[in-house]
Design a protein that fits this description.
The chain is α/β, with parallel strands linked by helices.
Length: about 290
């Protein structure tokens, strides 16, 4: 019954305009922050420890913006996953660096697209899939009804999904061998044995090694891609930039440092409520947490 109600709520929300959904999202963000102590605490802690602002007034303003943007990221999902694919892609008002996608595809060695939890990260997969095949790694949510909505929403156009397991990694490798693009969330906490502890905004974070291993083994080009959420529901601005990796050095650390630079451009759009610093089951915590 609950899944039926939520599926239909998603469909109803998708009928609303993007500006309306973002206004609702702002309200949802404030409500979630007010009534969930754990959500509020983690958001405050992660944002504060990132040291992106200098004083209390600046922090209060940034926190308020962060809470609003987090709420928008929820309500806009109904629109991105459920509206016609062409309508969703039409909400992209500008793309900066598209030539890097084209060049990566033309090279024939595959393309690794790294998208952080910044802005509307769902838009990256949706927009690229309108033009080129892309296979994205995903972790199934705990509730089956959400997974159904997510899979249907993400597997449109030329997009495919690969599960976050050994089988999924094989699927990614096959896509790279075909010269296609793959998508990864580089700031998603991996499982035991799939990451290393490296700094992310002054704190050790268990960081995936998969993206570096795939890049080194395949010779694929690597780009950072992120979708800036424009004010008042005006759409999205996509940013794509090449990422050169030195495989003689720590690749996870290089990726984290690149993400920090992206996030610092508009820190309110990062998902600070995400438990980025958690210790996965079976993983030994670093001594300098």
């Amino acid at each position: 019954m609950t899944s039926f109600l939520f599926r239909n709520l998603f469909r109803l929300l998708a009928l609303l305009s993007l500006p309306t959904l973002h206004r609702l999202g702002t309200a949802l963000g404030y409500l979630s922050y007010t009534f969930s102590k754990s959500y509020a605490s983690r958001t405050q802690e992660n944002l504060h420890n990132a040291r992106l602002v200098q004083d209390g007034h600046q922090f209060a303003a940034l926190l308020k913006q962060t809470v609003a943007e987090a709420g928008k990221s929820i309500t806009e999902l109904a629109w991105i996953w459920t509206r016609p694919h062409s309508d969703v892609c039409a909400a992209v008002t500008h793309v900066e660096g598209w030539q890097h996608i084209v060049a990566g595809q033309a090279a024939g060695t595959g393309l690794i697209i790294l998208t952080p939890h910044w802005g509307s990260f769902e838009m990256i997969n949706a927009y690229i899939a309108q033009h080129f095949p892309i296979t994205s790694l995903y972790r199934a949510p705990k509730r089956a009804w959400i997974e159904t909505l997510m899979r249907n929403g993400r597997q449109r156009g030329l997009a495919k999904l690969a599960s976050a397991d050994v089988s999924g990694v094989r699927t990614l490798l096959k896509a790279l061998k075909r010269g296609e693009a793959i998508g990864l969330l580089p700031d998603q906490v991996p499982s035991n044995g799939e990451g290393v502890w490296v700094d992310f905004f002054h704190r050790p974070a268990y960081t995936m090694t998969l993206s570096g291993r795939l890049a080194q083994n395949s010779g694929a080009a690597v780009v950072l891609a992120y979708a800036e959420r424009l004010p008042a529901g005006a759409g999205y601005h996509l940013h794509i930039q090449p990422l050169s990796l030195d495989f003689a050095q720590s690749v996870p650390l290089q990726i984290n440092q690149a993400l920090e630079q992206v996030i610092a451009t508009a820190p309110a759009q990062y998902l600070w409520s995400y438990n980025r610093y958690k210790v996965p089951s079976g993983v030994t915590a670093p001594t300098h947490l």
